[in-house]
């Protein structure tokens, strides 16, 4: 394998366009390790140290942490359940720990305690190893973040001439793991994603793909923060650009998409006919379906039974609460579902099991459960909807859209966010457009 082919391999798998410095490192340091290998034998995790910079420090770009402080105070402190945060391309962990410090600082000063969980990944396994160790060079404390540095002092357990070590508590607040973003993002339903100073190294195509993956991992109204030098990015169909004082960020709001036409030949004629009859008008703002907030999640065990109930409203409301419970308490949700399934396995219990598996990063298991749920009911559009999202499958998306257009959401919208039926129709149509565009690109 030549240096040129090695460089092409890195760009193809990571999206990174190598600069002159990185190419020089490949020639001088990586050549002996990789040039005698075939492309299929080259492990990207071994190559990562040669093309990642790991240029980071605590509270970098302090305007973003001022924004985070406002979000914690004004939004997350008023949110029920656990706040989920992702630090993507986290490098050696300064960013992720900085986020944790701000949440801990708020909790130490407020009667209202925020439950939060931080995931952080990077393609460079050496960077992840250092992040987990909690040991940092003093150069990671700089003037840019000095206003917040005193907050970090509380969590330093050891100091040397040129290093310091964070204590076990703050290290336990972040889950670090090795991951290439283009292999897919493990977690879902994040309230906040930091993805800073990585896009500037990507090809145009890789930027679009990375942002699509990030958007797919965000909750509705979830926030994406990119680097100051990347804030010139334009809005996308799902990400609205918002200015807050002297900083920009993006917020996911699929319901603000413009009404789109179904692409010709992508949806079968019966769907088009149904659409004409319904004369759907896309709402510009999401409309939440009322759900009884007083239903105990464990009531689901007595309501689901074999999937039959005399009161669909009760079962739908109860499952909506159970899904909230799964996302907020995944470690305990397995008992809830097992208890429900003791009354009989149904499409509902299978869907709940799939949601839990997806929440705990078992995508393969989730796909199997969604498919089993579909075997029990072809009209179970939310299972088609989930499979279409995960597998980027035109067929599953079309099946979901067909049911929505012909029968409406049938109360099942409370399972996946609780927005108006028209919002799901719009979201599916947009995803179908991307499927068709991707298929056409592959042909050419």
* Class of secondary structure makeup: alpha/beta
* Low-pLDDT sequence parts: 255-275, 277-299, 301-313
Strands of the widest sheet, in order across it, are 6-2-1-7-8-10-9
Write down the CATH class of the largest domain: Alpha Beta
Largest sheet: 7 strands, mixed
The amount of beta strand, in percent, is 5-15%
Question: Strand-and-helix sequence, N→C?
Answer: HHHHEHEHEHEEHEEHEEEHHHHHHHHH
Instruction: Give the overall form.
Output: globular
User: CATH homologous superfamily of the largest domain - what is it?
Assistant: Vaccinia Virus protein VP39
- Give the C-alpha Rg: 23 Å
CATH fold-level assignment of the largest domain: Rossmann fold
Please, could you describe this protein's structure?
- This protein has 444 residues and is α/β, with parallel strands linked by helices.
- The protein has three domains: 48 residues, no CATH class; 191 residues, Vaccinia Virus protein VP39 (Rossmann fold, 3-Layer(aba) Sandwich); 175 residues, Alpha Horseshoe (Serine Threonine Protein Phosphatase 5, Tetratricopeptide repeat).
- 48% of the residues lie in helices and 12% in strands.
- Helix 9 links the parallel strand 7 and strand 8.
Characteristics of this structure?
444 residues, alpha/beta, Rossmann fold, Serine Threonine Protein Phosphatase 5, Tetratricopeptide repeat, 3 domains, seven-stranded mixed sheet, three-stranded antiparallel sheet, 18 helices, 48% helix
Quick take:
This protein is of the alpha/beta class and 444 residues long. The chain contains 18 helices and ten strands. The protein has three domains: 3-50, no CATH class; 62-252, Rossmann fold, CATH 3.40.50.150; 269-443, Tetratricopeptide repeat domain (Serine Threonine Protein Phosphatase 5, Tetratricopeptide repeat).
């Amino acid at each position: 394998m030549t240096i040129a082919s090695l460089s092409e391999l890195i760009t193809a798998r990571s999206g990174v366009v190598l600069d002159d410095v990185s190419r020089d490192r490949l020639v001088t340091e990586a050549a002996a390790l990789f040039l005698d290998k075939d492309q299929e034998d080259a492990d990207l995790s071994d190559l990562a140290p040669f093309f990642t910079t790991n240029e980071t420090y605590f509270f970098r770009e302090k305007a973003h942490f001022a924004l985070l402080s406002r979000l914690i105070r004004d939004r997350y402190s008023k949110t029920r359940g656990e706040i989920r945060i992702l630090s993507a391309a986290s490098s050696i962990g300064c960013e992720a720990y900085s986020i944790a410090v701000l949440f801990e600082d708020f909790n130490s000063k407020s009667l209202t305690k925020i439950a939060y969980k931080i995931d952080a990944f990077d393609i460079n396994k050496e960077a992840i190893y250092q992040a987990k160790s909690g040991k940092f060079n003093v150069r990671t404390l700089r003037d840019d973040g000095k206003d917040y540095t005193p907050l970090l002092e509380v969590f330093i357990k050891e100091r040397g001439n040129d290093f310091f070590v964070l204590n076990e508590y703050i290290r336990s607040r972040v889950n670090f793991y090795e991951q290439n973003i283009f292999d897919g993002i493990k977690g879902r339903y994040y309230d906040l994603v930091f993805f800073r100073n990585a896009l500037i190294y990507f090809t145009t195509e890789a930027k679009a793909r990375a942002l699509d993956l990030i958007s797919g991992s965000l909750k509705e109204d979830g926030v994406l923060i990119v680097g100051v030098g990347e804030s010139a990015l334009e809005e996308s169909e799902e990400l609205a650009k918002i200015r807050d004082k002297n900083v920009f960020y993006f917020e996911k709001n699929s319901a603000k998409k413009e009404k789109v036409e179904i692409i010709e030949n992508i949806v079968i004629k019966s769907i088009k006919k149904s659409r004409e009859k319904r004369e759907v008008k896309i709402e510009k703002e999401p409309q939440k379906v009322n759900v009884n907030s007083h239903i105990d999640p464990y009531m689901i065990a007595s309501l689901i039974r074999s999937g039959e109930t005399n009161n669909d409203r009760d079962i739908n409301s109860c499952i909506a609460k159970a899904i909230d419970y799964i996302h907020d308490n995944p470690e305990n949700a397995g008992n809830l579902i097992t208890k429900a399934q003791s009354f009989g396995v149904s499409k509902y219990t299978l869907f709940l099991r799939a949601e839990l598996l997806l929440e705990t990063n078992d995508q393969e298991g989730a796909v199997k459960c969604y498919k089993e749920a579909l075997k029990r009911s072809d009209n179970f559009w939310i299972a088609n909807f989930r499979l279409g999202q995960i597998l980027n499958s035109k067929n599953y998306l079309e099946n979901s859209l067909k049911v929505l257009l012909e029968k409406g959401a049938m109360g099942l919208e409370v399972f996946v966010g609780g927005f108006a039926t028209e919002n799901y129709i719009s979201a599916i149509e947009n995803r179908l457009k991307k499927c068709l565009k991707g298929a056409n690109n592959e042909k050419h």
